[in-house]
Design brief:
2 strands; rod-shaped; Helix Hairpins
Length: 80
């Protein structure tokens, strides 16, 4: 994102945008503008989450009692 927000700031701004849009009190042009900003923030947050997920690893103990490092996936379990 070009304005240098971190993930938490981007999520907060996205929440604020959602709240404004849900109220339905904004003029159409302003609603469209902040909706587009919301899309940008959503893409940024998704990209950051994808980057972080790639960095996360889990340590798993194998049957021989050895600890091995395994990339984390959404369906990983400790009973592999």
């Amino acid at each position: 994102m070009s304005n240098g927000k971190n993930f938490e700031e981007a999520v907060k701004e996205l929440e604020d945008i959602v709240n404004k849009l849900e109220k339905g009190e904004l003029p159409l042009d302003e609603s469209i503008d902040i909706f587009q900003r919301g899309i940008e923030l959503s893409r940024y947050c998704t990209k950051r989450l994808d980057e972080v997920e790639k960095k996360i690893t889990m340590l798993i103990e194998d049957e021989a009692g050895q600890i091995k490092e395994v990339p984390m996936t959404l369906n990983s379990t400790t009973e592999e």
